[in-house]
Amino acid sequence: MSTTVIAVILLSAVGLIAGIAIFIANRILPREDESLQKANDVKEFLPGADCGACGYPGCFAYAQAVAKSVKVLEESPCRILAKDEEGTAQLGDYLGIDLSSTGPGSKALVHCTGDSPTIGSYDGIASCAAAVMVGAGEKECPYACVGYGDCVSVCPANAIVIDPEKRVAQVDWEKCIGCGMCVTACPRGLISLVPAETPQYLGCNYLSKKDVAERKKCSVGCLHCQMCVRASESGEVVWSDERDLPEFSTTPAPDAIEKCPRKIILKTPAYPEATVMAARAAEDASDVTSSG
């Protein structure tokens, strides 16, 4: 047998073996994660700034998270900060969801009145996160606003200031863009995003189920009496068993505000004062007519 024939046979054998190996590998080895291609597609709709505002190291990492859970997209500030309505709409079309009503229609609320007394001193880094790590902060209430302004420093709209007397964060609703960066920055979890039409909220975040030794709620802390719920016959206020605190709808709850013994159900700029007063006046007139 000639050398040429032997070479052809060997090369054919090698090719056959390689082909079989590739076939087996293709059957056995895991395929590329489908979410990886989806992440590449999502990234095309993102700003590409790799700013880290979303909490991920870059746009591609953020896109990977979005590809696995659309909830990440709805809760992060990326779309709002980018101010790209067209890109947001295109991304929503690609994902098959409506993004037009999420994000910008939200406002931030600080669930603390700042009435907790100071029981210690702190001379470290002027940061809420740092102060909480050292003795859980200076204030008696373990859920009180620390007041060093971590939320202020991350707000892109300059919508948050610290009250110099009470040392509690305050949100300017006209400036607030609902990005949620302050929510992430607060080490106490005192800030939440709510629909912009929310008329009232609880100025307290004390969790009685998680009492902290040697600490207690301030003089206006929620009593967990649920009087606000009982006063809301139409369900304007409901009780959250998970958080052991009241939760509010976007319907005005004047009776709940009035009945709260601590007066810490506070009105937002969206509270329709004139409408509520007119409705109450109409009810009073109806009662007088009925009794007559």
Which structural category fits the helices and strands? alpha+beta
CATH architecture verdict of the largest domain: 2-Layer Sandwich
Number of strand segments: 8
**What oligomeric state do these chains adopt?**
single chain
Q: Strand-and-helix sequence, N→C?
A: HHHHHHEHHEEHEEHEEHEH
Strand order of the largest sheet: 1-4
CATH class call of the largest domain: Alpha Beta
Beta percentage is 5-15%
Work out the helix count.
12
Query: How many domains in all?
Result: 2
Distance N terminus to C terminus?
123 Å
Which stretches are poorly predicted, pLDDT < 50 over at least 5 residues? none
| Mean pLDDT across residues | 81
Form type: elongated
Helix content: 25-40%
Question: Layout of helices and strands, plus pairs?
Answer:
Layout: H1 3-28, H2 34-43, H3 59-68, H4 70-75, H5 78-82, H6 85-95, E1 106-110, H7 128-133, H8 150-154, E2 160-162, E3 169-171, H9 181-185, E4 191-195, E5 200-202, H10 227-230, E6 237-240, E7 245-248, H11 254-259, E8 265-267, H12 273-291
Antiparallel strand pairs: 1-4, 2-3, 5-8, 6-7
